[in-house]
Design goal:
By secondary structure, the chain is mainly beta. It is about 15% helix and about 40% strand. It contains three helices and eleven strands; from the N terminus they run H-H-H-E-E-E-E-E-E-E-E-E-E-E. A hairpin with an 8-residue loop joins strand 4 and strand 5.
């Protein structure tokens, strides 16, 4: 029975096409600026060392071992593609080759309206340890009940391809060990 449910859930998640994924619950993120920055992830000379980025459920720890830290800096960029520049925390995991972005503020919701809160975005860079396409990645936002069509409070997100197109969306959890998110429940259309 568990195998049947898992298979059905996997088919449901994989069966969501790009167009349908864009209509799902959550933030309307256009990660073009993030993908462009990930092409040459060069931390500035003023970068500090840190192993975490984000807050609450919308956070990630990049330490692969005790004492491992990565380059961290703050920059003003439009991380979600809504036309508004945000003060953005950036963390470059140089071992796994993933560039993380985190900012708090307003964002557009899929299907209209706005939401507010923290947004965490991760973009795979060239030569990443999991051989994912450079520019592909994921994002999550913590939503309140009713915010951006969320039926209940929680973490919602999408995976996207190297062109920034959503490939799977829904209720999500951050999988720090694999520099990824897990879509726990596919968005219902």
């Amino acid at each position: 029975m568990k195998k049947v449910l898992f298979t059905f859930g996997l088919i449901l998640v994989l069966g969501i096409g790009t167009a349908r994924a864009q209509d799902a619950v959550g933030a309307d993120v256009q990660p073009k600026a993030d993908i462009a920055k990930a092409k040459t992830p060069t931390p500035p000379a003023t970068a500090n060392k840190k192993a975490t980025v984000g807050k609450g459920k919308a956070a990630a720890n990049t330490a692969n071992a005790q004492g491992d830290d990565d380059s961290f800096w703050v920059e003003s960029i439009d991380i979600d593609g809504d036309g508004t520049v945000e003060e953005t925390d950036e963390l470059y995991d140089d071992e796994d080759k993933v560039l993380y972005f985190y900012a708090e503020g307003d964002f557009k919701c899929k299907g209209g309206g706005t939401g507010a809160g923290g947004m965490l975005i991760a973009v795979n860079t060239a030569g990443n340890s999991r051989n994912r396409p450079a520019g592909s990645g994921w994002y999550v936002v913590a939503l309140d009940e009713g915010e951006c069509k969320a039926k209940e409070a929680g973490l919602y997100g999408c995976k996207f391809d190297a062109n920034g197109n959503a490939t799977a969306c829904g209720v999500a959890t951050v999988d720090e060990k694999n520099d990824d998110i897990v879509i726990v429940e596919a968005a219902k259309m």
